[in-house]
Design brief:
Blueprint lengths: L1 H29 L1 H5 L38 E7 L1 H4 L9 H9 L5 E7 L5 H15 L3 E6 L23 H5 L7 H11 L5 H10 L7 E5 L7 H12 L4 E2 L2 H8 L20 H17 L10
Parallel strand pairs: 1-2, 1-3, 3-4, 4-5
Length: 300
């Protein structure tokens, strides 16, 4: 009887491996474009009609566990940005925010909160930081920045100016509705055109955005280009503490890039893959642990 039960248990374990674990862990990622793209809440999407980038949200509207203020015995980090921080197409555990927390916890107790919002720009990220810096009292705030953070979305016209009246309203309202978004984006990305409304927004924000306990990280997963260097130069000119991962990409991660020299999830999902997120976590870990500016190794 015992032998029979043992064989039955083994059969059930094999069945579980073949029909549940293997399809979930192995087959599912291999068929991302065909079966999963924009259909799976575990990968940062939503299938119940709430739209793109709205899966697994906490009570504050972020794809993370519930946020609580800093504790006395921990190092608390908030990371703010757009979809590159949110991580569409990735399991939560594979995002760089989660990978970074795991690495830092090997040295001291650390929590890393992901405040990524798909489509947000520099102004919206500023507002988000202002709100949650007061609520959570983090030891370090990291802004994940990319080229399109300088783009002004038309929904900025409905932003809460009463609480954050830092922008000249004329800048936002002077956007011509006849502007072609693709052409406008191309011009700004390629030149950081100093005559654009985007650049004027950046100038307005540059004197307001935080420097203390704040790190700005250019999130790039492709070969470096002129736009990347221009963006870094603009932030550095304004005395933001800014880092990038050009050298790390070239020396270690470029070999994993696709034909367009970018670390992307798939042909349909052009957001960054788990290799790019590993690279971001590695670069941030190095910066936080080795740079005394962030006081990570100093326990007060």
């Amino acid at each position: 009887m015992d032998a029979y039960l043992g064989k039955t248990l083994i059969i059930w374990i094999i069945w579980l491996l073949v029909w549940v674990i293997v399809p979930f862990r192995i087959i599912r990622p291999l068929f991302f474009d065909k079966f999963i793209y924009m259909k799976d809440p575990d990968y940062g999407y939503e299938i119940n009609g709430r739209g793109f980038c709205n899966a697994d949200l906490n009570s504050d509207g972020f794809r993370d566990r519930e946020f609580t203020p800093k504790k006395d015995d921990e190092f608390l980090i908030t990371i703010i940005g757009d979809s590159l921080v949110y991580g569409p197409g990735l399991l939560i555990k594979d995002r760089f925010t989660n990978l970074l927390q795991k690495k830092l916890n090997k040295i001291r107790k650390t929590r890393v909160f992901n405040l990524g919002k798909c489509g947000s720009n520099l102004y919206q990220n500023y507002i988000r930081d202002d709100e949650f810096r007061k609520k959570l009292n983090p030891d370090l705030v990291i802004f994940g920045i990319s080229e399109n953070d300088l783009l002004i979305d038309r929904n900025l016209r409905d932003s809460p100016y009463s609480e954050h009246d830092i922008l000249d309203k004329k800048i936002v309202y002077s956007l011509r509705s006849s502007d072609d978004p693709l052409e406008y984006s191309k011009r700004v990305f390629a030149t950081l055109d100093k005559g654009s409304m985007n650049y004027l927004m950046f100038l307005e924000l540059s004197s307001k955005m935080p420097r203390d306990k704040t790190l700005y990280y250019l999130l790039t997963s492709c070969s470096e280009n002129l736009t990347h260097h221009k963006l870094i130069d603009e932030f550095n000119k304004k005395s933001f503490f800014t880092i990038e991962n050009f050298s790390l990409y070239s020396s270690k991660y470029r070999k994993y890039a696709k034909s367009n020299s970018c670390l992307e999830i798939s042909e349909k999902e052009r957001h960054l893959d788990f290799r790019a997120n590993q690279m971001f976590a590695e670069r941030l870990y190095q910066e936080i642990v080795e740079n005394s500016r962030w006081r990570f190794n100093k326990i007060d």
